[in-house]
């Protein structure tokens, strides 16, 4: 109860809904296993559980992503990604990226995904991420070389969003939207952050979850954080896929 009251008080004071106070006497910080310790089969199973790929009528690719993997993992499971996902959808004439349930991801995955929908040259400054704890700004640029072929810059790309679309997926959508490469269809996104730190309060069992990094888009000079990514075509999340298909068909005609 106290944690709930503190959360409400902090949010009302600073106007940031991302900050949260929790009481967790059993909390144990999660330590991600080192990449070499994860069997390739386990990585493949995890990717297949968080990705759905399908070729729809009209030669449209449908790719639903719940977690955006980082560059290190993408390099490790590259052949699996090409075989299970990319080779199936590369020949399509349009693509729908479904981020309506995407709530987690790695920052290093942002340029990895965006680069598949841009040209190899010239490289593009995609995003800048300021880390408050380190006081360092890292620039994210499109990648000149990738696993497999690029989808290109000419075929239609639509990204589906919902009010639950959170964090790194919001960043990818915002980058592609402002590069004029993708049309966003659905709902205004959650307005999360690219990185959250959970800080213990003294020797208590109270923790404060607070944003520790900030995304700054080089094109707009602004961030999607707190406010979310506004769709180009606003429709309820459950209607977003049908709307995207209709848009692609209309453009084809």
Structure, explained:
The longest helix has 13 residues, at 2-14. The chain has helices at 2-14, 40-50, 71-76, 78-89, 109-115, 168-178, 240-252; strands at residues 20-23, 51-56, 60-65, 67-68, 94-98, 104-105, 125-131, 136-141, 157-161, 183-186, 196-200, 206-211, 213-216, 233-234. Strand 7 and strand 8 (136-141) form a beta hairpin. The chain is globular and about 60 Å long. Helix 5 (109-115) runs parallel beside helix 6 (168-178). It has 7 helices and 14 strands. It comes from Pseudogastromyzon myersi. Residues 39-236 form the Tail specific protease domain.
Q: Features of this protein?
A:
receptor, Interphotoreceptor retinoid-binding protein, single chain, six-stranded mixed sheet, 7 helices, alpha/beta, 2-enoyl-CoA Hydratase, Chain A, domain 1, 29% helix, serine-type peptidase activity, 253 residues, retinol binding, globular
Q: Layout of helices and strands, plus pairs?
A:
Layout: H1 2-14, E1 20-23, H2 40-50, E2 51-56, E3 60-65, E4 67-68, H3 71-76, H4 78-89, E5 94-98, E6 104-105, H5 109-115, E7 125-131, E8 136-141, E9 157-161, H6 168-178, E10 183-186, E11 196-200, E12 206-211, E13 213-216, E14 233-234, H7 240-252
Parallel strand pairs: 3-5, 4-6, 5-9, 9-10, 10-14
Antiparallel strand pairs: 1-12, 2-3, 7-8, 7-13, 11-12
Helix pairs in contact: 5-6
Short overview:
The chain has 253 residues and is α/β, with parallel strands linked by helices. The protein has helices at residues 2-14, 40-50, 71-76, 78-89, 109-115, 168-178, 240-252; strands at 20-23, 51-56, 60-65, 67-68, 94-98, 104-105, 125-131, 136-141, 157-161, 183-186, 196-200, 206-211, 213-216, 233-234.
């Amino acid at each position: 109860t106290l944690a709930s009251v503190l959360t409400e008080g902090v949010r009302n004071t600073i106007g940031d809904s991302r900050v949260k106070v929790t009481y967790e006497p059993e909390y144990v910080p999660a330590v991600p296993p080192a990449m070499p310790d994860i069997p390739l089969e386990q990585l493949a199973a995890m990717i297949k559980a968080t990705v759905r790929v399908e070729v729809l009528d009209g030669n449209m690719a449908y790719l639903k992503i719940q977690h955006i993997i980082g560059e290190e993992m993408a390099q490790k499971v590259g052949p699996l990604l090409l075989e299970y996902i990319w080779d199936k959808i590369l020949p399509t004439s349009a693509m729908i990226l479904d981020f309506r349930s995407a709530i987690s991801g790695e920052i290093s995955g942002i340029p990895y995904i965006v680069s598949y929908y841009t040209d190899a040259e010239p490289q593009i400054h995609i995003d800048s991420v300021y880390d408050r704890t380190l006081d360092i700004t890292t620039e994210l640029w499109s990648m000149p070389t990738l696993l497999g072929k690029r989808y290109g810059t000419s075929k239609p790309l639509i990204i589906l969003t919902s009010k639950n679309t959170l964090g790194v997926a919001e960043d990818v959508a915002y980058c592609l939207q402002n590069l004029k490469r993708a049309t966003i269809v659905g709902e205004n996104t959650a307005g999360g952050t690219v990185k959250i730190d959970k800080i213990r309060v003294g020797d208590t069992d109270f923790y404060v979850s607070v944003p520790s990094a900030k995304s700054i888009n080089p094109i707009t000079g602004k961030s999607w954080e707190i406010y979310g990514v506004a769709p180009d075509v606003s429709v309820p999340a459950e209607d977003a896929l049908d709307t995207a298909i209709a848009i692609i068909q209309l453009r084809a005609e």
